[in-house]
Specification:
Elements (H helix, E strand, L loop, with lengths): L1 E4 L2 E4 L8 H8 L18 E4 L2 E4 L12 E3 L12 H8 L9 H16 L18 H7 L10 H12 L6
Parallel strand pairs: 1-5
Antiparallel strand pairs: 1-2, 3-4, 3-5
Helix pairs in contact: 2-5
The structure holds FE2/S2 (inorganic) cluster (2 copies).
Length: about 170
Protein backbone atom coordinates (compact mmCIF):
# COMPACT_ATOMS: atom_id res chain seq x y z
CA UNK A 1 0.00 0.00 0.00
CA UNK A 2 1.30 3.46 -0.84
CA UNK A 3 2.08 6.36 1.42
CA UNK A 4 0.68 9.67 0.24
CA UNK A 5 3.26 12.42 0.68
CA UNK A 6 2.20 15.95 -0.17
CA UNK A 7 -0.53 14.58 -2.43
CA UNK A 8 1.55 12.02 -4.32
CA UNK A 9 1.49 8.28 -3.71
CA UNK A 10 4.87 6.66 -3.03
CA UNK A 11 5.84 3.11 -2.24
CA UNK A 12 6.71 2.41 1.38
CA UNK A 13 10.28 1.26 2.08
CA UNK A 14 10.89 -2.49 2.09
CA UNK A 15 12.92 -2.17 5.26
CA UNK A 16 10.36 -1.86 8.04
CA UNK A 17 12.99 -0.28 10.33
CA UNK A 18 13.23 2.97 8.34
CA UNK A 19 11.86 5.96 10.24
CA UNK A 20 9.43 8.29 8.53
CA UNK A 21 12.03 11.04 8.96
CA UNK A 22 14.75 9.12 7.14
CA UNK A 23 12.28 8.04 4.46
CA UNK A 24 11.29 11.64 3.80
CA UNK A 25 14.83 13.00 3.83
CA UNK A 26 16.93 10.19 2.37
CA UNK A 27 14.52 8.45 -0.01
CA UNK A 28 12.22 11.27 -1.03
CA UNK A 29 14.86 14.00 -0.75
CA UNK A 30 12.40 16.22 1.10
CA UNK A 31 15.01 17.89 3.26
CA UNK A 32 12.66 20.50 4.70
CA UNK A 33 11.86 18.15 7.57
CA UNK A 34 14.82 18.45 9.89
CA UNK A 35 16.69 15.92 12.00
CA UNK A 36 17.58 17.53 15.30
CA UNK A 37 17.84 15.07 18.17
CA UNK A 38 16.43 11.98 16.39
CA UNK A 39 14.94 10.88 19.69
CA UNK A 40 11.72 12.81 20.18
CA UNK A 41 13.04 15.73 22.20
CA UNK A 42 13.22 18.76 19.88
CA UNK A 43 10.27 18.80 17.46
CA UNK A 44 12.40 19.68 14.42
CA UNK A 45 11.07 16.62 12.57
CA UNK A 46 7.35 17.38 13.07
CA UNK A 47 5.09 16.56 10.11
CA UNK A 48 1.35 16.07 9.69
CA UNK A 49 -0.12 12.58 9.26
CA UNK A 50 -3.83 12.58 8.49
CA UNK A 51 -3.83 16.13 9.88
CA UNK A 52 -2.25 15.16 13.22
CA UNK A 53 1.20 16.46 14.15
CA UNK A 54 3.70 13.70 14.84
CA UNK A 55 7.43 13.39 15.40
CA UNK A 56 8.64 11.67 12.27
CA UNK A 57 11.86 10.48 13.98
CA UNK A 58 9.72 8.31 16.27
CA UNK A 59 7.46 6.89 13.55
CA UNK A 60 8.21 4.13 11.10
CA UNK A 61 7.55 4.90 7.47
CA UNK A 62 5.59 1.66 7.06
CA UNK A 63 3.15 2.87 9.72
CA UNK A 64 2.10 5.55 7.24
CA UNK A 65 0.95 3.18 4.52
CA UNK A 66 -2.51 4.27 3.42
CA UNK A 67 -2.13 7.57 5.25
CA UNK A 68 -1.67 11.15 4.16
CA UNK A 69 1.65 12.77 5.10
CA UNK A 70 2.19 16.51 4.72
CA UNK A 71 5.63 18.05 5.15
CA UNK A 72 6.70 21.67 5.04
CA UNK A 73 7.09 21.30 1.27
CA UNK A 74 3.34 20.59 1.07
CA UNK A 75 1.80 23.34 3.18
CA UNK A 76 1.92 26.07 0.52
CA UNK A 77 -0.98 25.82 -1.90
CA UNK A 78 -1.10 26.91 -5.53
CA UNK A 79 2.22 28.73 -5.31
CA UNK A 80 1.05 30.86 -2.38
CA UNK A 81 2.64 30.59 1.04
CA UNK A 82 0.49 29.22 3.84
CA UNK A 83 -0.64 32.23 5.94
CA UNK A 84 1.49 30.92 8.81
CA UNK A 85 4.59 30.84 6.61
CA UNK A 86 3.97 34.48 5.73
CA UNK A 87 3.39 35.35 9.38
CA UNK A 88 6.74 33.78 10.34
CA UNK A 89 8.39 36.12 7.82
CA UNK A 90 6.41 39.14 9.01
CA UNK A 91 7.20 38.52 12.70
CA UNK A 92 10.83 37.40 12.41
CA UNK A 93 9.82 33.97 13.65
CA UNK A 94 13.19 32.43 12.80
CA UNK A 95 16.89 33.05 12.71
CA UNK A 96 18.80 30.03 11.38
CA UNK A 97 15.52 28.42 10.29
CA UNK A 98 16.41 24.91 11.40
CA UNK A 99 13.42 24.53 13.69
CA UNK A 100 11.03 26.44 11.41
CA UNK A 101 9.54 23.60 9.31
CA UNK A 102 8.75 21.68 12.47
CA UNK A 103 7.35 24.77 14.16
CA UNK A 104 5.03 25.46 11.23
CA UNK A 105 3.80 21.88 10.82
CA UNK A 106 3.34 21.61 14.58
CA UNK A 107 1.37 24.86 14.77
CA UNK A 108 -0.95 23.77 11.95
CA UNK A 109 -1.63 20.52 13.81
CA UNK A 110 -2.00 22.40 17.09
CA UNK A 111 -4.62 24.72 15.61
CA UNK A 112 -6.64 21.68 14.50
CA UNK A 113 -6.45 20.29 18.05
CA UNK A 114 -7.78 23.59 19.41
CA UNK A 115 -10.60 23.61 16.87
CA UNK A 116 -11.58 20.15 18.13
CA UNK A 117 -11.60 21.49 21.70
CA UNK A 118 -8.75 19.25 22.87
CA UNK A 119 -7.50 20.59 26.22
CA UNK A 120 -3.83 21.08 27.10
CA UNK A 121 -2.03 20.85 30.44
CA UNK A 122 -2.90 24.49 31.18
CA UNK A 123 -6.52 24.53 29.98
CA UNK A 124 -8.92 25.56 32.75
CA UNK A 125 -11.90 23.88 31.13
CA UNK A 126 -11.19 20.28 30.18
CA UNK A 127 -14.46 19.73 28.39
CA UNK A 128 -15.23 22.95 26.65
CA UNK A 129 -14.11 25.88 24.71
CA UNK A 130 -10.35 26.30 24.38
CA UNK A 131 -9.26 29.84 23.81
CA UNK A 132 -5.81 30.28 22.33
CA UNK A 133 -4.22 32.44 24.99
CA UNK A 134 -0.46 33.00 25.01
CA UNK A 135 -0.18 30.57 27.90
CA UNK A 136 -2.02 27.96 25.83
CA UNK A 137 0.15 28.69 22.82
CA UNK A 138 3.39 28.38 24.77
CA UNK A 139 2.26 25.13 26.38
CA UNK A 140 0.97 23.62 23.15
CA UNK A 141 4.15 24.54 21.26
CA UNK A 142 6.52 23.55 24.06
CA UNK A 143 7.60 20.41 22.22
CA UNK A 144 9.19 22.49 19.48
CA UNK A 145 12.48 23.96 20.64
CA UNK A 146 14.25 26.90 19.02
CA UNK A 147 17.94 27.13 19.80
CA UNK A 148 18.09 30.63 18.31
CA UNK A 149 15.58 31.93 20.84
CA UNK A 150 13.09 33.14 18.24
CA UNK A 151 10.16 32.06 20.41
CA UNK A 152 8.64 35.53 20.75
CA UNK A 153 8.34 35.92 16.98
CA UNK A 154 7.13 32.34 16.64
CA UNK A 155 4.33 32.89 19.15
CA UNK A 156 3.39 36.21 17.51
CA UNK A 157 3.18 34.54 14.11
CA UNK A 158 1.05 31.68 15.37
CA UNK A 159 -1.18 34.03 17.36
CA UNK A 160 -1.77 36.27 14.36
CA UNK A 161 -2.62 33.33 12.15
CA UNK A 162 -4.78 31.20 14.41
CA UNK A 163 -6.05 33.22 17.36
CA UNK A 164 -8.94 35.60 16.93
CA UNK A 165 -7.78 37.37 20.07
CA UNK A 166 -4.74 36.53 22.16
CA UNK A 167 -4.52 38.41 25.45
CA UNK A 168 -1.07 39.71 26.37
S1 LIG B 1 14.45 15.02 15.49
FE1 LIG B 1 12.52 14.24 16.06
S2 LIG B 1 12.07 15.21 17.93
FE2 LIG B 1 14.11 15.87 17.48
S1 LIG C 1 15.42 29.61 14.18
FE1 LIG C 1 17.31 28.61 14.68
S2 LIG C 1 16.66 26.96 15.91
FE2 LIG C 1 14.87 28.11 15.64
Amino acid sequence: MAITVNGSGVEAPRDARVSLLDFLRETMHLSGTKKGCNQGACGACTVLVDGERILSCLALAVQCEGRDVVTIEGVAQGGALHPLQQAFIDHDGFQCGYCTPGQICSAIGMAAEVRRGAPSHVSADLAGDVSLTREELRERMSGNLCRCGAHNGIIEAIAETFAARVPA
